[in-house]
Design goal:
With 252 residues, the chain is of the alpha/beta class. It folds into 2 domains: 34 residues, no CATH class; 197 residues, Vaccinia Virus protein VP39 (Rossmann fold, 3-Layer(aba) Sandwich), CATH 3.40.50.150. The chain has 11 helices and 7 strands. A 7-stranded mixed sheet has the order 3-2-1-4-5-7-6, sandwiched between helices. α10 links the parallel β4 and β5. The longest helix is centred in the N-terminal third of the chain and has 17 residues. The chain is globular and about 80 Å long. The mean pLDDT is 95.
Length: 252
Amino acid sequence: MDDLKERLEAIRQSNKFSTEDAAFLSRRNDFAVKAGAADLFSYMDQFGLYAGAQTIASRIAAYEALKLTLDVPGHIVEFGVWHGSNLLFIAKLLKLMRPNTHKQVIGFDNFAGLPEAHELDGAAAQTSLGRYCGNEEILRAAIDLHGLEGWVHLVKGDADETIPAYEDAAPEAMVSLAWVDFDLYEPCKTALKFLGRRLCSGGMIVFDEAISANWPGETIAMREFIEEHSSSRFRMVANPLGRQPVMSLVKE
């Protein structure tokens, strides 16, 4: 009887997540050292304490965009990954909300910063060559840390080459949610051409810099996209919470 009581108490006190959690904590400590910030997670775990209101608003916007498109068939794509914060945030949400989904999260970036600007991009963009350069090695390490290898895929290179190449290589791929954050006219134009052919009904295109005086190229590309697809119905939706993303187009 005493032996039975001990076994039952062991069951009662057991934590089915303890092994998994211990392994993750060990891996993330190694990641923090690799990232050059050994105390990284002492701050990250206090996100609500340190993050500004606009950062929180942008995360809520990403959650709402994903929630609204979860039942729309197709993958999730981000055009302009930078450090990968938004990309992995969406991927983690997707894994929590639809653990058995077919959806993949695909990020396009050259990992060399902003390319040469077009004349339509305005004065500020002309002096921004190389700005917003992310660290591909750290991002891939973060993908591995969080067990997202099968969920997140990075496509590195010039958008004018990689996006058409992806479209040719994946004739079956459709899109439910797209996040456009290339900032500049020409890569945004290329991304929107792809979305014009692959965005599903009910799908959403989120624009991070639309209607921005500093980055007019993204807005010009968006307006041209709407004009070119006048036969399709797109509803414009503002972000009511924060400054970025600015707005979305929802395909009806």
